[in-house]
Specification:
- The chain is globular.
- The strands form two sheets. Strands 1, 3, 7, 8, 9 and 11 form a six-stranded antiparallel β-sheet that branches. Strands 2, 4, 5, 6, 10 and 12 form a six-stranded antiparallel β-sheet that branches.
- A hairpin with a 7-residue loop joins strand 7 and strand 8.
- With 146 residues, the protein is mainly β.
- The longest helix is centred in the N-terminal third of the chain and has 10 residues.
- Helices cover 7% and strands 45% of the residues.
Length: 146
């Protein structure tokens, strides 16, 4: 017998599919978090939860690295470590704005082509688990954890 979860179905109907990926311990490097394949997708939200405190200076951002074309920042690089970012803090990526800590999610969807969503870190401690909600624009387009 199957069980229905109306809350999950409602959220998926509003925001789309959800995919999650942890950064692992942040290092001064760029790492792929998510891979987009098969065409255009519309990303409806990008939200992170700090799972290990970030305690050292860290200019941090997310970017879209398309297969063809130039990288595009998904939020402005923000120092998330000089003033500690504690376990449990919620981070929201907003195109054209600083990475927001504990901010509301009210953002417009961003259409992205094939490529990757990447974590760009200058610091060396802390862990963030990122959640992306998305819907395909092109038939067969996908977004998965890298």
């Amino acid at each position: 017998m199957s069980q229905l979860n109306p809350n999950k179905a409602f959220a998926q109907g509003i925001l789309g599919n959800v995919v999650a990926k942890s950064t692992g311990t942040l290092a001064a490097t760029t790492i792929p978090l998510f891979t987009i394949a098969g065409g255009l997708v519309s990303v409806t939200s990008i939200v992170g939860r700090v799972t290990t405190a970030i305690t050292v200076a860290n200019s941090y951002k997310l970017q879209h690295n398309p297969t063809a074309g130039s990288n595009s920042d998904l939020c402005t690089a923000t120092d998330i470590g000089t003033t500690d970012t504690a376990v449990g803090e919620i981070l929201v990526a907003k195109k054209g704005a600083s990475l927001a800590i504990g901010a509301a999610l009210l953002v417009a969807p961003v259409v992205m082509d094939t490529g990757q969503i990447e974590s760009v870190s200058a610091g060396t401690d802390g862990v963030i688990k990122w959640y992306v909600t998305w819907v395909p624009v092109d038939d067969g387009a996908t977004l998965v954890a890298a």
